[in-house]
Amino acid sequence: MFKLKYFEWFRTLAVVVIALLLSLLIISFVSEQPWHTMFIFLYEPISSLSHAGNVVEMAIPLMFAGVSLALLFKMNMFNLGAEGIFYFSGLVAASIAIRSGLGFLHPAVAIIAGGLVGALIMAIPGILKAKWNANELVTSLMFNSILLGVGLYLLNYKLRDAAAFQTASFKFNPDAVLSRIIPGTRIHSGLIIVLLCIVGAHLFMYKTKWGYELRMTGSNREFAEYSGIKTGRVIVYVHLLAGFIAGVGGSVEVLGMHTRFDWTSLPGYGMDGALVAMLAKNNPLAVIGSALFLAYIRVGADMMSRLSDVPAEMISIIQGVILLLVSAEQFLKFWKNRMLLKEAQKNG
């Protein structure tokens, strides 16, 4: 018999399958060669080492954003501040990367600095929520706009290289760039860093007293306070941890995939991280699979747009369906209710 504890995982799998089937159905209507187009979409991302490398490269920042937001969502805090933190922490790391004299410690110093800045920034919405119950979604979105504006000012007037013929910083010192770990791809050592962050977040959430307080506060803040948990403190330290991870993610992405900072807009990892976290059911370890899946379909859509007659915008349909069904609490709820009834009758 299908166990009730696996229901949410089955529900997520069903969402993914439905989204893929819907996308294939649309392809069959808009493409003159639907089977060839479907083959490109599903096979090309794993058809070679370099293509598979593209999937992993794209998944690294998604993992950082996903695990950061999974911590916040587990607290029942819908905070999208990772978007602005990715940008600003990346800029902070870049400002350190263009300097010299740090040797082999250069990337570590830049990444830690970006992480600490991310933690301090994310702490502000956390303190506002803990002290005055300010809506974390509103404050985080406002901070995203502020961080973009401040970041663009610093990029244009403090870090910009006039010889670059674009809005970009001076080139990074070669010592600061993250090393490649798989020949033939651009997969960098940031993959190791993000996997360590994910394992650390999992152990923190499920193996420590602070993680227990996090989960209790997210389930029912009033009951957690009645039980003696200082929920205000929990909200602040979870925001600090989530901000640090997002800051490290922005720094790693900049140092791993770029030779100079050239982001002139927010990178978009706030909503992407939310989608990854929701697919993973706010489980840090499951973020790995969720991020790889999202990166896989994005690379597939990109290859499809280049090698067939279907545009890459197809990916927006897939993501929209996934987000819609994952957030729809009533989806497959009838089956869950039936399982609960059978289990109750069995135990009774």
UniProtKB/TrEMBL annotation:
It is a multi-pass membrane protein. GO terms for molecular function: transmembrane transporter activity. Its main location: membrane. The chain crosses the membrane at residues 12-31, 51-73, 85-102, 108-128, 137-155, 187-206, 234-255, 275-299, 311-332. Keywords: Cell membrane, Membrane, Transmembrane, Transmembrane helix. One of its GO terms (cellular component) is plasma membrane. This is ABC transporter permease. It comes from Paenibacillus stellifer.
